Amino acid sequence: MRRLWSATIPAALLLTAFTACSGSGSDGGSDTAVSDYAGEEALEASPGAADVDYGETYDFNETVDPAEDPESTFAVDVDTASYDFARRSLEDGELPPADQVRPEEFVNYFDPGYTEPEGNGFAVYTESAPLPEWYSSGDATQMMRVGLQTRSEPDSERADVNLTFVIDVSGSMEEDDRIGVVRESLHTLIDGLRPDDAVAIVTYESESDVLQEMTEVGDGEELHDAVDDLEAGGSTNMLAGLEDGYELAGEAYDDDKDNRVILLSDGEANVGLTEHDEMLEDLGEDIAEGTTLLTVGVGDSYNQQLLEQLADNGDGWAVYFATESEAERVFSERLTSTLGVTARDAKIQVTFDPEYVAEYRLIGFENRAIEDEEFEDDSVDGGEVGPGHSVTALYALTLKEDTGDGAVVDVRWQDPETEEIGTASAVLDTGAVTDPANRTFEVAVVAAAFAELLRGSAEFDVEELLPAARDLAETTEDPDVDELAELIGIASDLGLGA
Fold it and tell me: Start and end of every VWFA domain (predicted)?
């Protein structure tokens, strides 16, 4: 096997945040308590070792007294795979595994309709509202949301791209015709590319194979023919595929293009190194700096944690689809935001004033936490965000009687073109409460509560959550919110919280 082009590995962590225009905004060591690592030992086995836990299991974030630690710091994340997979599980009549549910990705799925900034970087927003009666979280009385929004761009304005596809063609990809869904999704994506974009294709089973060297799209015929040749069978050596994929990406790296490796897999690695930290350590110095990673989970069952952690630590994000229509949403309707990068290493730090805030609890982002003192350390990786992306973080707050500037939100990122550091901030006035809450704010709260219920929280009653979701579906007339209410109803019928 050829050696990879040597560079430096980025170790990105991502956040999801939501934004609203009430409150304050601008353009422009976390104390999250988690449990110990809970993954099992990786297996070196033949196909079918799908029960292995490749990820980490986290407890809920603890409630924090800002007099003891006023700062909450984490990296930005735009993943939605957790919600997509939960939807598929519920539609198949099963509750999703609790350790594959991430509240921030549930919230991130829904479009908040935020106002975009005029320039590059982020618009930052804050807002607070009273907690609904059905929401129980200790002594908390208010919910705060922190929102980020990047500027969208038309496809005609995006940079040309070099895409290296690393495609799982192991035996498990034959199940439910996963490989067929991959073929159709790639045809869709290639049809949406421009002639000057370029694509390479690596496949892997027990070994990896370079199916297509980096080739300009042109009329797409040569690439479509290569995609038609994809067939599944064999065991799963994901690391071998990533090694060859990053090798091709490094050899074809172009400073004037966006360079991305796209891994499509059900995540069932079972040969060689099979855990994300082992894979990233092995790749180490061989990942080209500036090459981002998109992981695409495929199929009715897949190892979400493995693919999410690879994306988070490989300067990218994770998505999921199980059908051709879901693939079209990622690779056609949202192609520009899927391929582009607006901000690198984006981080958020929220500083609470103990004069006005008695307690706070961050909902989700347990595996996105970074040390408080690392916020301004630009050698510490954050999350990558594309054009037109919105990000939301929710905090349950217990407020004191006096009101004032209870929280300052600072955002820090690197411009991918100039490599300059950008900053933006916003302030939350605890006296400026939105009552009733904006409907998109309420959707975020319902989505987050649903996720925490699926993770095993005893603080919510699904029979109280369901009417709230149905009311939102009726008043927003948003098909995504209507689907959320339907999923909560399915979960209730399956015994959620019983």
Answer: 162-339
